[in-house]
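We were asked to recover a plausible sequence for a given structure. The inputs and outputs are reproduced exactly as logged, with field labels preserved.

PROBLEM: sequence recovery
POSITIONS: 214
GIVEN STRUCTURE:
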């Protein structure tokens, strides 16, 4: 998967029963956890990893690896485990040669959460993902967000700024889809012309927002 620095490697395996107690799992979460054979904390990324004094609000990233006994995502379990951890998390679920990966953007110690959506890659073949030059925790977190979301990052962006841009792209995707449907069903030429003009503008705005650098 990701070939992070050896300094980040933890590979600490946990008893699933202990984690279920820790997160106060209800019967549905416990049943969902039945899909899991093993769970371990594979990597911890923090300022020590980079030997830096980064003052970012993002202090640590926990990367968990789960070995599954069936090709099904333990979504309820992942949600409850993520909620119980006051650091950023990234989950890798393994089933045979395939992996499922997931990240939920969350803002720690802030009153406003720009976006708490979960992003994921469905089961796919595991492969080594190249890691760009990263020298702080903030950039490492943004790299993981970029991997899951698929929108190229800009070097000068903070994770908050990156997610705000992603949010704008999602809004434009909605407008593009809505306008395309309107064009298909519209019979009046004047309105159809107006919708087409709007569609071109939405696509132009999206293209600008999708650029890796301004």
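RECOVERED SEQUENCE:
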């Amino acid at each position: 998967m990701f070939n992070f620095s050896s300094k980040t490697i933890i590979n600490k395996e946990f008893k699933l029963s202990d984690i279920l107690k820790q997160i106060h799992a209800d019967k549905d979460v416990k049943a969902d956890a039945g899909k899991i054979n093993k769970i371990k904390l594979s990597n911890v990324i923090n300022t020590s990893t980079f030997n830096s004094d980064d003052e970012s609000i993002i202090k640590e990233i926990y990367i968990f690896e789960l070995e599954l006994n069936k090709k099904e995502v333990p979504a309820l379990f992942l949600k409850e485990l993520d909620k119980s951890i006051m650091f950023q998390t990234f989950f890798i679920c393994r089933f045979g040669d395939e992996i499922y990966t997931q990240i939920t953007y969350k803002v720690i110690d802030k009153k406003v959460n720009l976006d708490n959506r979960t992003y994921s890659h469905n089961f796919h073949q595991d492969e080594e993902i190249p890691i760009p030059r990263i020298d702080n925790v903030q950039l490492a977190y943004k790299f993981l967000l970029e991997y899951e979301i698929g929108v190229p990052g800009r070097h000068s962006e903070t994770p908050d700024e990156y997610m705000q841009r992603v949010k704008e792209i999602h809004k434009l995707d909605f407008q593009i889809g809505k306008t395309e449907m309107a064009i298909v069903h519209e019979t009046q030429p004047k309105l159809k012309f107006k919708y087409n003009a709007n569609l071109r503008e939405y696509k132009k705005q999206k293209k600008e927002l999708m650029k890796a650098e301004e």
